[in-house]
Amino acid sequence: MAELGEKELLRRLGRFAPPGQLADDAALVPSTPTPRCGVVSSDVLVEDRHFSQTTTPPESVGWRAVMANLSDLAAMGADQVVGVTVGLGCPGSLPWHWLKSVYGGMVEALDQHGGRLLGGDCVGSPMVTLAMTAVGTVDRQRVIRRRGAQAGDWLVCSGPHGLSSYGLSLTLHGVSAEPGRLQAQAVAAHRYPRARLDVPPQLRASQPPGTPWRVAGTDSSDGLAQALHLLCGEQGLGAHVHRLPIPAALKALPDAERHCLWGGEDFELVLALEPSWAQALLERDPGFYHVGTVTADDQLLLKDAQDGQLRPFPSGKPFDHFSQTSPMETGTHGIPGPPWRDRPPVRTQTPDSGG
Amino acid sequence: MAELGEKELLRRLGRFAPPGQLADDAALVPSTPTPRCGVVSSDVLVEDRHFSQTTTPPESVGWRAVMANLSDLAAMGADQVVGVTVGLGCPGSLPWHWLKSVYGGMVEALDQHGGRLLGGDCVGSPMVTLAMTAVGTVDRQRVIRRRGAQAGDWLVCSGPHGLSSYGLSLTLHGVSAEPGRLQAQAVAAHRYPRARLDVPPQLRASQPPGTPWRVAGTDSSDGLAQALHLLCGEQGLGAHVHRLPIPAALKALPDAERHCLWGGEDFELVLALEPSWAQALLERDPGFYHVGTVTADDQLLLKDAQDGQLRPFPSGKPFDHFSQTSPMETGTHGIPGPPWRDRPPVRTQTPDSGG
Q1: Considering only CB atoms, which chain B residues are within 8 Å of A38?
Q2: Of chain A residues 251-280, which have a CB less than 8 A from chain B?
Q3: What CA–CA distances, in Å, run from A190 to A44, A67, A325?
Q4: How crowded is residue B249: how many other Cβ atoms within 10 Å of its Cβ?
Q5: Which of A29, A125, A219 minimises the CB distance to B38?
Q6: Contact assignment for A38 to B31 by CB distance below 8 Å
Q7: Distance from C-alpha of B314 to C-alpha of B261, rounded to nearest angstrom
Q8: pLDDT tens column, A225-239
Q9: Tell me, what is an example of a GO biological process annotation in this record (chains A, B) (predicted)?
Q10: Are A38 and A325 in contact, with CB atoms under 8 Å apart?
Q11: What three-state secondary structure class fits B116?
Q12: What structural domains does chain B harbor?
């Protein structure tokens, strides 16, 4: 990067945005007339903590950064993506082709949701950091907040949990030379997660007539257990979880429950809804899971699959960014690249839409 | 920070935002009905490159980060600040009181313009990084772009240039034990710059009747010469600069011209305007400088103060983030702290406005 210089780098990165988009000091975003308003979310990814140049394909680094941010927008009820700004820190020694693939992955992820690269900043830094801010819009009358669950609400989630975490463990600890279908699926789930921006429209479509809008929700980026804690425990409520949304293919694994509850990065939405609304949603989309019920006490209890008894959640711990170790610091083994590259090659040309 | 843990850190940082502001996955920003629209800008600051824990007071780190971003909004014509999101990376060993003062400085800077801390992210990182995204609004019919200058336009800037750069050099190379008024002013200018969000309203107020809105402009964060290059050179135009906006107090210094042209971080706006509009602006606010004229050729020429001849700009180089050295890497000497701490102590309590 050092030999390119900042100006040439900016010129090259500009190709990932609509023509002229990066030509000014800041980026314009469209008007949002009432009843809509804007929604913004920021995430920071740091090399060797959230990703590794040796075990994460660069397309995945960019794709995951975008999807993690868009997942936060979805968790607020957003159903429209404007785009992202990217604050990039990188060492002068970083090869351009790596960075090019990161931005390619970003743009491909944005394309899934009609978003664009809005702008950003590039600075020198001892290691790669990727700070992203996503901008979207939401109907102000249809916002999802973490607060607002009530005892008796059903807890539903938009999909299974645990596959991404299993994929991460495979990435970190190595997979067999000829990975089976489940292993390939898990690594792909980890590398190319999808933000559930389709959920807010489904919530609107399944809202029973006459029912006021009251949806508590969050995404499961830090794990299902953490999401339930935010929706219930943090609000002085509890939960009875009678069914864990473990993917069928994962059930045979000894640590399937741990991956499901504590793994994180499945980027599904976890919601607390009035029961008739939850039922309508589950009927509308069988991909949703009814995982339990909100209770008035402040305990998170899980129904034992063997004896049917309710017991406190098995131990586990959400990822703490300031603890001594992080997933990426526990040592890595090379895994074969190409088999996981199930995504089509990323586009590096700009869309032809105007700035 | 490690002993605090992420949850406690987030709770403490939450005190710098309006109550409940950081309680969700993302932040809502107000509707922007036509003719207004949103404007967003991102900047990244990296420790020991853009600031140093040993030579930059933490309040200044936060203040400068905010003002640099708001300056980008002003350079787009924004006259309203919504707020900023902050992506913080920091090592577990960072003392809380340092970070508290950084956020205090941010909030104080935001307070100057009615903005708020909107949200953000905290991650562990080997060194402190501060990635900020500012959100504001602009009248879509009153946008300032870098492109659009025409030969014959007057080049004006909103204030003098060079004081911040001189202040930085004092910070890096040491000042006398009893700094004079100029030294104190310069260091304060470097540490507590002000974004010129007052300029867009002044442009509107001075627009001659019947003149269409055509304002080319940028901010001088990377130096006056770089701003002129963006407005003229990058657009295939040139400039005759007949007067450098060197602050009177700086004129006696041997390298005053270099500070003024190449120093950067004065965060003034540099504008190309139709002459009658420029005249009206200069009459309205005597703090503005008429620095020169846009020309049809592509040369940036400076009138020599001695013989009145036009000559190419004296050599200098805008700061390249990927070059081997950066201002903060050239070695520092301790400078006394309190004399520069001319800002009132920062507020660490939240405003009482709702989320």
Answers
A1: 28-32, 38, 135
A2: none
A3: 18, 11, 20
A4: 17
A5: A29
A6: yes
A7: 9
A8: 999 999 999 999 999
A9: thiamine biosynthetic process
A10: no
A11: strand
A12: 5-139 (3.30.1330.10), 154-317 (3.90.650.10)
